[in-house]
Amino acid sequence: MAVVLDGLVYGLQLGLLAVGLTLLYGLGGVLNLAHGQLAVIAAISTALLLDAGLPAGVAAVIGILGVGMLGLILDRTLMVPVYRRRGGERVLLGLLLTLGAAFTIDGLLVWRYPVQALTLSIGGGGVDVLGVHMRSGSLLASAIAVAAGVALTGFLRFTRTGRAVRSVIQDEAGAQLVGIDTGAMRSLIMALSAMLAGIVAITQSMTVGVTATSGLGFTILALIVTVVGGLGSVSGALLAGVLLGIVNALSSFYIGAYLTSIILLTAAAGTIVLRPTGLLGRAP
């Protein structure tokens, strides 16, 4: 039971990480390969603010908002030529440009902050959940991930802007015909995606340290969860995150951490073969 609960905690973070990626793909047809690096920027920024003497909560909020602004800047600069393309050209150019951005951010972070890391120590003795003693950091990370997921779901379902985002995902041409500014929706989701990645990095630092080199790992995990859940499906990303988080915990405990990545990649490959659209994805 303890292993399953640990996997559930990790899975909630994976799901939230993949939601930002899948939203951006559903809205603009782009896979952001710099997604993990944006998460790391939020973590390193928070660590630097903590070193400057700011309270942890304030530093985390500033780090998340700051990376959201960076996501907006990337959307209005780097992604402009991408959105001018259509179909396969858009996907390919988006992959190339965001991959270049990922390498650039990685290089800058490793050069400037080679030993900087974010590790948030959460006080308290923990709580017993279903007879299992859970650390305070794990519980707080789970609570934040659930709250963020609920807030995102409420935003997409019950607000006018959220319904506009869903309309663009379902039919971009139709959304333009009814007066929805698709460019503004893409910019909003790019910023929101970066903020969600930042939240994941900060919550993960409550149990495991996040360093300047963690970006690639975040991106790979987000891609795996997105593929398994279904490209463009928010509920699919959340479901796949939870399932793969539990698989990750069980395989690490019973088989060994060195094989966990192979098992997750096998799960993604199996999903593509058996159900190309993912668990909850729609056929094109």
The tally of strands reads 4
Q: What percentage of amino acids are in beta strands?
A: under 5%
Number of domains: 1
Shape: globular
Roughly how much helix do the residues carry, as a percent range?
A: over 70%
**How would you state the average pLDDT, rounded?**
87
Question: What's the assembly state of these chains?
Answer: single chain
- Characterize the largest beta sheet: strand count, sense, and whether it forms a barrel: 2 strands, antiparallel
The unreliable regions are none
Our count of helices gives: 12
How are the strands of the largest sheet arranged?
Answer: 1-4
Distance separating the two termini:
39 Å
Q: What is the CATH architecture annotation?
A: Orthogonal Bundle
For the CA atoms, what is the radius of gyration? 18 Å
- Using the coordinates shown, work out and report the CATH topology: ABC transporter involved in vitamin B12 uptake, BtuC
Name its key features.
single chain; mainly alpha; ABC transporter involved in vitamin B12 uptake, BtuC; two-stranded antiparallel ribbon; globular
Topology overview:
Blueprint: H1 2-28, H2 35-51, H3 56-76, H4 80-83, H5 88-112, E1 117-118, E2 127-129, E3 132-134, H6 136-158, H7 160-170, H8 172-177, H9 182-204, E4 210-211, H10 215-229, H11 234-254, H12 260-274
Antiparallel strand pairs: 1-4, 2-3
Helix pairs in contact: 1-6, 1-7, 1-9, 1-10, 1-11, 2-3, 2-5, 2-9, 2-10, 3-9, 6-7, 6-9, 7-9, 10-11, 10-12, 11-12
